[in-house]
Amino acid sequence: MKKRIKILTVILIVFLIIGISAYYFIDGKNSKNNVSRGGNNVKKILNPAEGLTLEEAVAKFDENFVYYLLYNIGASDLHSPPFSSAVPQIKFYINDDIYNAEIIDGQIKVNEGEIEGEDIIIRTTTEEAVKMVVDQNYVANSFSNGLSSIELVAGKLELASKGYLKIYGELNS
User: Fold this and answer.
1) Exposure of 83 in the CB half-sphere (CA atoms within 13 A)
2) For the chain, how many structural domains are there in total?
3) What are the backbone dihedrals phi and psi of residue 29, each rounded to the nearest 5 degrees, phi first?
4) How far apart are CA 140 and CA 77, in angstroms?
């Protein structure tokens, strides 16, 4: 009888773990997000290139442009894996400048400089980044035409558990 109880307990724990993991994989969104990209209660994110010429936007390029680009490709939907505190981390090489981003509870935090433990690396030029900020539809074109690239650094399981596969698929379609 005790053996049956132990087996049932193990089975219940396994199903609980599978259920929680499935919730994170299927939902793909962190319920703590303050900003939603699809609903009616969307917080307006201001385009830093709005009203600027391409040359003016390139000259003013900073963390706000990186933030806006990340937001448009769905980075706010990235999340920590189940049962882990490891946050999604992205490194950007934009010309000679390096930016990094961490997504914590659905909030995108962008800084200038290196980061250790990045999951992916995105490489592009300032002009390409500005074009992607100006026209969200241009993002996939930039990647498919080889003008921008994405490098997977973390393993596929970790990337999947953080929600990167949807972004990777959209950028490489």
Assistant:
1) 7
2) 1
3) -130, 150
4) 18
